[in-house]
Design a protein that fits this description.
By secondary structure, the chain is mainly alpha-helical. The chain is 68% helix and 4% strand. The strands form 3 sheets. Strands 3-2-1-9 form a 4-stranded mixed beta sheet. A 3-stranded antiparallel beta sheet has the order 4-7-6. Strands 5-8 form a two-stranded antiparallel sheet. It is globular and about 80 Å long. It holds the Pfam family BTAD. InterPro entries: BTAD, TPR-like_helical_dom_sf, WH-like_DNA-bd_sf.
Length: 636
């Protein structure tokens, strides 16, 4: 059984591996290690940590490697290094030695010591030669990432190719995300998008990568100046990272939002993102990135304290061999000197940036950073063709205009292209798209059962194919392809920006901003209002229950802080969705006492009790108690 469990782990079949583990009556320390790895990759951090700690306690010292990985995911870098420090490398197998050295290198890279990481990975590669190819793939991916960070893109590409060819499904997602990051920084946006699309298709194999996937999309949009799409992706990355306890992913997504806010002079958003990032900065490298973005923000506000932050970031990047980051920091120092300092100092910083850029091989795309540096661009514009610093003006091909496609399912269903309604003749057109967006890859049989219940199979199949044909004709870039290998349909977008009002409402409610409950369009009864499909009704009911639960939690927080008027407004909105939820009536009446007095609350209580008596034949005990308290005027 142990052999089968290890085989499942190496293959990336973590659900199967966990089932095998749970079938063991007396798991060994090594079994606990493999089971812990399965839990880790399935996103159950608490259980993974417990199993790996138990494996170490029972004598499997190599489980410290995977425990360190678990701790790193949770942002506990010092604790991860402590676990690895307890290993005797001479007693490890070649495979475990390679994995231990790789994990040490990743920790060094996260802390900013790129040179030391490269040395450790070279040693890890030496040990991995006799190991399983999938272990070699993991080491190769890390080598490629470090090489890309050092500016050695030829080396990075060869290792990326090897890693992708030998990876298990989970590891392949991470390799693709790493390739996307490298291609984005080089300005190879087509290649980056292709890698992200493939990673997106296989994201189910790697649930832990969901936040990182959204972050990489955010960086891809940012690099091309598509700020609104980038904000949405960074926001989604933050929510996912919080849910999966991945503080490092949230940190860099917050910095992505801060950079966008600085570039667009949105000081409120800028301060909020930087404040959150400050709490999450737990490594020297993270602090350097934070200093960089804080310095840029202060300079934009005309505050000379920005110089100190920028020089601190530059010093760290230079000391630790982060040449790519050195270029960025020097461009921002050029801006700072041009805005707050002197022209000679700005020119000197620009010359240093050109030196560092050439050290990278003059391949990295600088457009995104330069887009937000007005005075640096002006300075570059004054240079003659023969002046040295002109190397920073490498030609950049602007991204073609992207069509904004909106799927409207709250209210009258529609498709909008750049705000204009598309004329649709087929009644279930929007419903088919909404179902596929909600469920992903779907078989014909599932579509027929869920969306076309009661319709003859041949007729519904023909309808679906008409939808595909009409969509291709009416909305170029949006399609419903059929995958012959998996026998499934899905929604695909190419060269467009697709938004769905239902998903936007869901994302808004998942945000940490409670006030969004007062303005977001979340009346689930409006969802595909003309559809009588069972799945649509189920979705309305599911969303209604979830909205009410979130609303009750929100009102509880508001009530405790004295925001009674907000409670009244939200309760009134939610009662329109669930008129027979006694908890909502309770909040409405209690908050009304505080806002409008006992008399108004008594009237509301009478109306609520009358409604329940009429609709369900009895008055909830909670409302009877409220009525008695109001009568005796001692409601709190």
């Amino acid at each position: 059984m142990t052999h089968a469990l290890l085989k499942a782990v190496l293959a990336g079949a973590y659900s199967q591996g966990l089932q095998l583990f749970e079938g063991l009556k007396r798991p060994s320390a090594q079994d606990l290690r493999w089971g812990g790895i399965c839990c880790l990759n399935l996103g159950n951090m608490l259980k993974a940590r417990h199993m790996l700690l138990t494996a170490v306690a029972q004598g499997d010292q190599a489980a410290r490697i995977d425990l360190a990985t678990c701790l790193r995911f949770e942002g506990e870098f010092t604790a991860a290094q402590t676990q690895l420090g307890g290993l005797d490398m001479d007693k490890l197998t070649a495979q475990d030695a390679a994995l231990a050295l790789r994990e040490l290198a990743i920790l060094q890279q996260h802390c900013g010591n790129v040179g030391r990481a490269a040395v450790l990975l070279s040693e890890a590669w030496h040990h991995s030669i006799t190991a399983d190819p999938r272990v070699q793939s993991a080491v190769a991916q890390s080598i490629a990432l470090v090489a890309a960070q050092q500016g050695n893109d030829v080396k990075a590409e060869s290792y990326f190719q090897f890693a992708e060819q030998n990876a298990n499904p989970m590891r392949r997602v991470y390799v693709l995300l790493s390739r996307a990051a490298s291609s984005t920084s080089l300005g190879k946006f087509g290649e980056a998008k292709q890698a992200l699309k493939v990673a997106e298709k296989h994201a189910m194999d790697c649930p832990l990568a969901a936040g990182l996937l959204s972050y990489r999309w955010g960086m891809w949009f940012s690099a091309q100046g598509q700020f609104q799409q980038a904000r949405e992706c960074f926001g989604r990355a933050i929510r996912l990272a919080r849910g999966q306890q991945q503080p490092e992913t949230e940190f860099y997504a917050q910095l992505g939002l801060a950079a966008l806010a600085t570039a667009t002079s949105d000081e409120g958003a800028e301060r909020g993102s930087l404040a959150r990032a400050m709490i999450l900065a737990t490594t020297p490298r993270a602090q350097a990135y934070l200093d960089w973005r804080q310095g840029a923000a202060l300079v934009r506000r005309g505050d000379p304290h920005g110089f100190g932050h920028l020089y601190a970031a530059l010093d760290y990047f230079q000391t630790n061999g982060c040449t790519r980051e050195v270029v960025w920091a020097l461009l921002h120092l050029t801006e700072a000197h041009a805005f707050l300092g002197s022209a000679p100092a700005a020119r000197a910083a620009l010359r240093e940036a050109a030196d560092a850029y050439l050290m990278l091989g003059s391949q990295h795309d600088l457009a995104f950073e330069l887009n937000g540096l007005e005075r640096t661009r002006q300075l570059l514009g004054t240079l003659t063709e023969c002046e040295y610093e002109r190397v920073l003006c490498a030609p950049h091909i602007p991204a073609p205009p992207v069509a904004e496609i909106t799927l409207v399912t709250l209210g009258s269903p529609a498709i909008l292209v750049d705000g204009q309604r598309v004329r649709l003749q087929m009644r279930k057109f929007i419903e088919v798209l909404a179902f596929l967006l909600q469920h992903g890859e779907t078989t014909l049989g599932t579509l027929q059962t869920e969306v076309f219940a009661g319709v003859p199979p041949r007729r519904s199949k023909n309808y679906i194919h008409q939808v595909r044909h009409e969509l291709k004709r009416l909305v170029p870039g949006l399609s419903v392809p059929y995958d012959a290998a998996t026998h499934t349909y899905c929604v695909r977008s190419e060269g467009i920006h697709l938004t769905w009002d239902w998903q936007q409402s869901w994302d808004a409610l998942l945000s940490s901003e409670r006030d969004v409950m007062l303005s977001a369009n979340f009346n689930a009864k409006d969802f595909l209002q003309d559809s009588e499909s069972e799945w649509a009704e189920t979705e309305r009911e599911r969303m209604s229950r979830w909205i009410v639960r979130v609303g009750l939690e929100t009102m509880d927080a508001w009530y405790s802080t004295g925001d009674y008027a907000k409670c009244v407004k939200l309760a009134e909105r939610l009662i329109e969705i669930e008129p027979l939820d006694e908890g909502l009536h309770d909040f409405l009446i209690r908050a009304t006492v505080q806002v409008s007095g006992v008399g108004a609350a008594r009237t509301l209580c009478w109306e609520s009790r009358t409604l329940f008596a009429k609709e369900v034949g009895h008055v909830p005990h909670l409302l009877d108690v409220l009525a008695q308290q109001l009568h005796h005027k001692h409601l709190n």
